[in-house]
Amino acid sequence: METMTIGQLSAAAGVNVETVRYYQRRSLLAAPQRQSGSIGRYPISALIRLRFIRRSQSLGFSLDDVGALLSLDDGQGCAAARTIGEHKLAEVQQRIQTLQALEAALTTLVSQCATKRRKVRCPLIEALMKTEGPAFQAEG
Fold first, then answer.
1. Beta bridge partners of 41
2. Tens digit of pLDDT for each residue in 37-58?
3. Which residues pair with 4 in a beta bridge?
4. Does 16 reside within a domain?
């Protein structure tokens, strides 16, 4: 079986060596096998696991979620993994709704800025200056 040093592992996964050590401290990645007095060597499975962690994070999963998903990787935990995925999906859908509302408000405010040249205070700046209510509440 091919093995790698921590430097080779981190380079292959595109992460910093300290990231690998951090994941070990978080128990997301096992410590390397060591012969007495030798450099630790990681199996290919460590690279696969490290890539899983990074991919999961890029999808918005927290390290706690990643740890839970990794603990369910026994072929029996699909229902629990689905629950974690559904929770993340609900969070993403909520963020999308929030961003769509922000997009609509900014579109309106930017449009108002283009039509109200120097006659009144800039609507975008005025919306950001508000101390009460949502900062980007589009006014009709």
1. 33
2. 788 899 999 999 999 999 999 9
3. 42
4. yes
For 3, the 3-state DSSP assignment is strand
Could you give phi then psi for residue 125, rounded to 5 degrees?
-65, -40
**Closest alpha carbon to 26 in 71, 64, 59:** 64
User: Computed over its alpha carbons, how large is the radius of gyration of the chain?
Assistant: 24
CATH number at residue 31: 1.10.1660.10
As a whole number of angstroms, the distance between CA 108 and CA 106 comes to 5
Number of domains in the chain: 1
List own/partner pairs for 69-74 with CB under 8 A and 24 or more apart: 70/28
Domain that holds residue 50: 1-60
CB 77 within 8 A of CB 71: yes
Q: Nearest 5 degrees, angle CA 82-CA 87-CA 92?
A: 120
Work out the number of other CB atoms within 10 angstroms of the CB of residue 132: 5
Tokens matching residue 69: 């998903």
In angstroms, how far is the first alpha carbon of the chain from the final one? 67
Is the pTM higher than 0.70? no
- Helical residues (DSSP H) of the chain, grouped into ranges: 6-13, 17-25, 44-58, 63-71, 78-115, 123-129
